[in-house]
Amino acid sequence: MPWQSVTLPATADEAERLSDALMDVGALSVSIEDAAAGTDYEAPIFGEPGMPVDALWRDNFVVALFEQNADVHHILSLAAEHAVFNLPSYVIGLVAEQDWVRLTQSEFDPIQISTRLWIIPSWHDAPDSKAINLKLDPGLAFGTGSHPTTRLCLQWLDQNIQGHESVLDYGCGSGILAIASIKFGASSATGVDIDPQAVITALDNATNNDVTIAFYTTENDHSSPADIVIANILTNPLLALAPLLAERCKSHGRIVLSGILASQADKVIAVYSSWFDIAVWQIDEGWVCLAGEKIL
Ligand SMILES: C[S@@+](CC[C@H](N)C(=O)[O-])C[C@H]1O[C@@H](n2cnc3c(N)ncnc32)[C@H](O)[C@@H]1O
């Protein structure tokens, strides 16, 4: 079935709020594209012909997918009303499912994350058979390793897993972080996601990588406290989830938080400091990864 795609320009600061509002009003998926990333993504032209578009509005594009029959104009007005923002000009397109799959596949080549870790799409051969090759089919879930927020988490896991830790990947998407944890030597990993489709995709990816991982939806979450809790979700859900993630982290365990814009890092650190000695670990393309140890 074809879908409707809606593309809206946003500054880096607005992109997350816009993205949250679109998910709240029923978008099937929302992605934030970096307008300066120079990918194959063809940014639409906004504004009246001949009129300059404010440079700030060109930082990011928020791309949301809706069902074919959804009344997108009405839904966007609802989102704007609900989250109190002025609706920018937007472009609606029709995306055939086949085209979407092909588009995703053509944009997703093997990615080298570190000297020893490669992410290999299921339709590609591994360029280095001696590396740790994580086979991945993103399906409809987020998490291909191409986004800086995922990359930062993978690099943290690569540098910090000693072996024998338990890992909880909260907001697991494709399951990439949980699977990588096991490949780096963790003794067990669990994943949780709010999206049942992500859990299905994550289970398939774990099977394809010959690792055993329990994945749960948030509605049916049986995860236990872990030595390492890693969560790559946007700032607002991370703030709301702080007490839960703190409870799921063992005493003196470690927490890794990603999906945070640099301008929002202080807010997240302030909230999580109630439980963790936490600080910025690394920044990549304006996205911050925080890491800390539970002090209680
Ligand atoms: C940015 S993706 C990260 C996926 C993957 N862990 C990675 O690092 O690439 C965020 C994921 O968090 C999930 N998510 C969003 N809000 C959530 C919540 N409140 N509880 C659990 N999962 C949530 C989304 O469905 C999505 O799969």
From TrEMBL:
Entry keywords, A to Z: Cytoplasm, Methyltransferase, Ribonucleoprotein, Ribosomal protein, S-adenosyl-L-methionine, Transferase
Subcellular locations according to the entry: Cytoplasm
Coiled coil: none
Enzyme class: transferase
GO CC terms in record: cytosol; ribosome
HAMAP family the UniProt entry points to: Methyltr_PrmA (MF_00735)
Protein name: Ribosomal protein L11 methyltransferase
Organism encoding this protein: Sulfuriferula nivalis
